[in-house]
Amino acid sequence: MEILTGLATGFQAAFTPMNLLYCLIGVFIGTLIGVLPGLGPAATVAMLMPASFVLPPVSSLIMLAGIYYGAQYGGSTTSILVNLPGEASSIVTTLDGYQMALQGRAGVALATAAIGSFFAGTFATVVIAFFAPPLAKVALKFGAPEYFSLMVLGLIASIVLARGSLLKAIGMIILGLLLGIIGTDVNSGVQRYTFGFRELMDGIGFVPVAMGMFGLGEIILNLEREGVARRVIKEIKNLMPTREDWKRMVAPILRGTALGSFLGILPGGGALLSSFAAYSVEKKMSKHGDELGRGAIEGVAAPESANNAGAQTSFIPMLTLGIPTSPVMALMIGAMVIQGVQPGPSVMTEQPALFWGVIVSMWMGNFFLLILNLPMIGLWVRLCMVPYHLLYPAILVFCAIGVFTLSNSEFDVYLMAIFGILGYIFAKLDCEPAPMLLALILGPMMEEHLRRALVISRGDPMIFLTRPISLGILIVAAIALVVAVLPAIRIKREEAFKGD
Amino acid sequence: MKNLRGTLSSKDLWSGLIFFFFGVVFVYFGRNYQMGTAMRMGPAYFPTLLGALLTFVGIILMAKTFIKPGDKVESMRYSKVIYITLANLFFAFMLRRIGVVLSIVLLVLIGAYASQKFKWSYAMPLALGLAIGSAIIFVLLLHLPLPILGQWFGG
After folding, report:
1. pLDDT tens for residues A54-65?
2. Tens of pLDDT, residues A140-165
3. Domain ranges in chain B?
4. Hey, is A299 helix, strand or coil?
5. Could you tell me how many CB contacts below 8 A there are between chain A and chain B?
6. d(Cα A21, Cα A361) in Å, to the nearest integer?
7. Which of A47, A353, A459, A490 lies 20 to 30 Å from A291 when distance is taken between CA atoms?
C-alpha cells in the first residue's frame, strides 16, 4: 500500500507539464550526445550537469536521469552502427549488433535494443519501487559504524568489478580517497594539502575531475586512434523485427533484465558487469548460443536489456543510502548536494516528491526513449557520421564552459586540464578511473564516519565487528575480496572482461 | 638485461611509481597537521594512514615488475596531450581578459590542431561558429555570467 501512495506522489511530482518536458529534453539531449562517437554516459552527464542547476531539484534530477539513460541508449546505437562503443558497457553490443548491421539488419538490431531496454527499464522501475523504501527504512537505523562498513563494501565491490589488476584498482581507490580529503577539515578547520590555494579550501571539485578524466582524457585517447578507418552503416531499411525475431528475443530479454536488475544494485559498475554477464549467459543457455558473435539477435537483446536494467537499479543504493555505485551515480549525488539535498535514507521521508518523482520519471523516460528513438533513427545515423575532427572541438567547448560556469572559476578549468593528463596516463597504464572517482566522493564521508564511530567506541576499532549489521556488511565485503583473489575465479573474471 | 628493459617499460612499474609518489607526498605533508589518537583523530590521522598504504601498494607493484614485467606501455602521443591541455589552459587564462568569444576561438583552434586531419579551411569556420553559437546559447539565452568582451576590450 505504501508503495502505491508513494507512486501516486511520484506521478503527481513527475507528471507536471514542466517535468514531463524536462524528462523529454533530458532523454533527447542524452541520446543526442550519447550517439556521438567516443562519448559515454559519464562524460555526457558531467558535461550537461551545469546546465541543469538552473532548474529546481526535482526537475533537475529528472532531467539528469533522463540524460543518463538517453546516453546509455545512444551508446548502443553507436555500437550497432559504427562498431564504436561509447563506453565499456556497450562493448558487448558491438559483437552481434554490428554484425547484424553488416547483414543489412541494422534497423532490427536498433529496434531490438529499444524494445529490450524499454522492457528492462519498466521492470527495473518496479524493482526500485519495491526495494528502495524498505532498504531506506533499514538504512535510517544505520549509525556511523554501519555507514563506514557500507562504504568499505562499496569500495571493495568496485575493486572486484574493475577490469585488470586488483592491486592497481586498490591503488586508485586509495588515491581517490586521499584526493577527496584535500580541503578544509570539518572537525579542526585545518586546511589540508591545499598548498595555499584558496580555491582548494572546499576540496577538489568532482565535476572538473570527472570531466578531465572522462572528457579530455577520452578525447586524447580517441585522437590517438584517429587513423583507424571505420565503416558507418548508413542504410537502415527495415525496423520491424520478423516473427522469428520476436520469438527469439523474448527469452534473452527476460534473462538479461533479471540479471541486470540484480547486478545493478551491486556497487562498482552494475551496467558494465551486467552486459558482459548477460552475454555469457546467453552463450550457454540460448538455443542459438553458437550463433552468437555472428549477428544473432540474442546477442543484442540480452546485453541491452541487462545494461539498461542495471543502469536503473544502480539508483537504489544512491537513493536509499546516498552511496554512489558508479561514476554516474557519483555525479548524481554531486548534483543533489549542489541543489541542497543531502543524499541518504532520509531523502525518502523528507523529500517524498523528489524520491518518488525520480523513480516514476524513469519509467516515463524509458517510454520516451522507445517512441522517440525509432522514428529518429535517421538523425542518429547522421550524427554517427560526424567526423571526429569536427566533433571533438565542440566537446572541448562544452567541457570548458561547463566547468568554468560551475563556480565561475578559472581554477576548475586548470584542474580539469591536469586531470585530463592524469586520465590519459592512467588509461595508458591500465588503471581504471571509475574506482578513483567513487573514492573521491566517498573520501570525506568515510573519514567522518570513521571518526564518529571511533568516538562512540572510545578508539576501539572492534566496534565495526561487534555491531551485527556492520559485521554482516564487512563479512560480505571480505567474501567479495577473497572470491576475487581466488585463482579459479580470477581467471573467470579476466575472461568476463576480455571483450575489449 | 632483457628483463630489466621489460621492467622499465612496464605498465605496472609506472603505476607503482605514481602511487608511491602520491603516497609519499600525502604522508610527508601530513606531518604539518596534528595526528591525534584513534579516539580523537587529528586531521593528519586518516591521510597519513592512507598515504602509507598507498606507498606500500606502489612498492609492491614496482617490486613485482622485477620478477615479471607484465604488459609494456604503448607509445604515448605527447603532442596530443600538450595541445588539448594548452587549449584549456589558454581558455581559462584568457577568458576574463579577451572575453568568451575570442577565448573559444583560441580553445577550438589550439584543440583542433591536435588532430592529424587539421586544416585551417575547416578549423577557422568551426571555431567562429562554436564561439558565436556558445555566446548566443550560454550568455544570451541561459544568462550564464560570462564576459562577451573581456577586460582588454572594456567588457
Report:
1. 788 889 989 999
2. 888 889 989 988 888 887 787 666 78
3. 2-67, 78-153
4. helix
5. 186
6. 11
7. A490
